[in-house]
Prior knowledge:
The complex is a heterodimer of chains A (441) and B (261).
Chain A: H1 12-15, H2 21-32, H3 36-55, H4 63-88, H5 96-119, H6 124-151, H7 156-175, H8 199-227, H9 235-258, H10 263-272, H11 290-308, H12 310-320, H13 322-327, H14 332-358, H15 369-379, H16 391-410, H17 415-440
Helix pairs in contact in A: 3-16, 4-9, 4-11, 4-14, 4-15, 4-16, 5-6, 5-7, 5-14, 6-7, 6-14, 8-9, 11-12, 12-14, 15-16, 16-17
Chain B: E1 9-18, E2 21-31, E3 36-40, H1 47-55, E4 62-67, E5 70-71, H2 77-82, E6 85-88, H3 100-104, H4 119-133, H5 149-162, E7 167-171, H6 179-194, E8 198-203, H7 206-209, E9 215-220, E10 223-229, H8 235-244, E11 252-253
Parallel strand pairs in B: 3-8, 3-9, 6-7, 7-8
Antiparallel strand pairs in B: 1-2, 1-4, 4-5, 9-10, 10-11
Helix pairs in contact in B: 4-5
Amino acid sequence: xxxxxxxxxxxKTSGAAGQAEGNIVARFFRATEIDTRMLGMIGALLIIWxxxxxxxxxxxxxxxxxxxxxxxxASVAVMATGMVLVIVTRNIDLSVGSILGFTGMIMxxxxxxxxxxxxxxxxxxxxxxxxxxxxxxxxxxxxxxGVIIAFLGVPSFIVTLGGLLIWRGATWxxxxxxxxxxxxxxxxxxxxxxxxxxGATWSWIVGIIACLAIIAAIINARHQRKRFSFPRRPVWAxxxxxxxxxxxxxxxxxxxxxxxxxxxxxxxxxEANNIAWPEGGLLISQGIAIPVLMAIAVGIVMxxxxxxxxxxxxxxxxxxxxxxAELAGIKTRWVTVKIFALMGMLCAIAAAISTARLxxxxxxxxxLDELYTIAAAVxxxxxxxxxxxxxxxxxxxxxxxxxxxSGMVLLGIDSPFQRIVVGMVLVTAVWLDTVYRARAK
Amino acid sequence: MTEQxxxxxxxxxxxxSFGGIHAVENASVDxxxxxxxxxxxxxxxxxxxxxxxxSGAYKRDNGDIMINGEAADIRNPRDAxxxxxxxxxxxLAVADNVDAAANLYLGxxxxxxxxxxxxxxxxxxxxxxxxxxxxxxxxxxxxVKALSGGQRQSVAIAxxxxxxxxxxxxxxxxxxLGPQETxxxxxLIKQLKRExxxxxxxxxxxxxxxxxxxxxxxxxxGKVVGHARTEDVTKDEVLGMIILGKVPPGATPGxxxxxxx
Lengths: 441, 261
């Protein structure tokens, strides 16, 4: 990756014979510009998956488990995307779990107690207002944290440690500790489940749109490089990238569609719609879950913000050299405030997913999530020294963490021991990363 | 160098103190178009502090800054850039983790019509500017961290000249460089000078800058000892100003000049 790829307008290089074996692999990665670090993470994830699959006697790599895994990952993955920006600027946010709890409780009270009095239960406006309310509260909390950090100069560790306690306490005060349930019918769709999934047809449509987007992105990038006659990837490398991307997307859709409605629900559905119950059972695909789509959408938006907008550029510049960023005329304090406000909003989205999934808002919602979120970002390659990190890496990190947990649950490992394992994995992952980076230099 | 012209920059009676310590006291310097002025003095003499007032990094307590004869209101680095003042800091002040193009345009990114970063256009003009400055520079895609001292320096200089600077401040521009790279920077300074840019060179080492400079200002203990045209004084005399605060006959004494007993 280290070298700029020389312009090759045709696939000459791929046919160049007489190269050593290692060269072909190295050249493949150079030509496709695939991040080897990311590849290492995907490799680790596959090892974890296959390992658990063998240990559990074939329970792990089933459509059902993978589907559940995707839904369970969504909430932390959403927050991890924001945590990347926070950590990149050499800050930390320990309060995300508590903000999740607080905004979740606000949204719960809005939709289960306050709004039904105005509109009646399950009115279609309720979920929108509840979600908007949560987002606003999350953004306000984040802004408050950001202002204290940036303008009053209190270290983010302390501000958010205070936030961890304060917002958890505030969560209790909203309902004096009572759990709020059930959630609004429409709101609940954000939690996944049979209702909160989009079914086979729509899943394929989403998959195909994603593939088209991949193709369009690659063509556009190539076109742009051509316009300014920059070095381009060899054509075969572009095809490989398109093929890989589409295989992953369509494979994921296929797996999600292989997970069918539970028999009881399918039977009820059949009865309600006068469908005769077939011999082998009624197979209705779940398709992709809505929370997973939300997480992916958040990931795309956050990646766009981080890589395509000035704001994202500033975030990384501040992380790399705060003084240089300031001297370059960047309003570093406002950038910090915006990062924390964004983090607060992402907490609210995560809260929507997790309260909808649980069908309740509780006091303990999101406890320890701050640590899983930080762990996901760090495992995903975000450097605590600042300046380095990627959104996709953090989401993958969240998937790694959730895979470990889910696998251990399937193995029947006690939860205290699960924590020990997760803790050790975190330390090991960061150590490996340190080794990798020392080598890369 | 006709003295009748209005100076490009005139800093008059600048004072700034930190916690009761006068870092700069009643200092005045000026700079004309196409002129190279060296600001000399020991470490801690106040030259970097004085110049940071001009570049907007510090706020002055007292004094005036005139740009082209008009009072300039410089409160932060953004204000300074508006007046065409670009600074290359001793620490280089580049963001290590992003590439050359991102550094060149840091704080002034080109955007597409949709408000997104126009990376391709930025890289294109980066390639053009760098090609002019340092034709050997090829590593456009790498974080600046991976570059050598000279390459980083050329990135910092490219950033300053990319935006049509009229006033260039270089703080110890060759401190981190080898002999060949130092010579390169010297050539570059001569080239910029021909384009009519006024340049402040700040150094604690007279040998770095004496041959490049048209005039020298010497500072000691936060005060200006005096200034002189380089053709009117010798290196030894300037050294005397730096070390003792002794003003030679060819120089104009300032507030910090050694009192002659």
